[in-house]
From TrEMBL:
Domain Rhodanese: 19-105
Protein name in UniProt: Rhodanese-like domain-containing protein
Pfam families: Rhodanese (PF00581)
UniProt cross-references to CDD domains, sorted A to Z: RHOD (cd00158)
Record PROSITE patterns: RHODANESE_3
Length: 105
């Protein structure tokens, strides 16, 4: 097992454990991208819409969050924004299609 396998295997394990604890999936792609494919039950809040109002809504969920996007770049940014705004447990799953395989395997 290589270093990347170890790192990504750990990410997968953390994400799946968070889902078992009731985590909510937040897809931070645009509405147009989300429309053409997404993880069932995920919320669509584009990364550039992570304003005070949407952050407040996410806090009210009172659950761990898993962020995803097309490749992992926007979800990494979203994770930083959410953590800076007081959300305590946020996981970056990276690409939504990979997360979709994880939750449906």
């Amino acid at each position: 097992m290589g270093l990347l396998d170890l790192l990504f295997g750990k990410r997968k394990q953390e994400v799946l454990e968070a889902i078992e604890r009731g985590a909510k999936i937040v897809d931070v792609r645009t509405a147009q991208e989300f429309k053409y494919g997404n993880v069932d039950g995920s919320l669509n809040i584009p990364v550039d819409s992570l304003n005070a109002s949407n952050i407040k809504k996410l806090k009210k969920l009172n659950a761990p969050l898993i962020v995803c996007c097309a490749s992992g770049m926007r979800s990494a940014s979203a994770k930083g924004i959410l953590l800076q705004n007081g959300l305590e447990e946020v996981h970056n799953a990276g690409a939504w299609h990979k997360l979709n395989r994880w939750v449906n395997s």
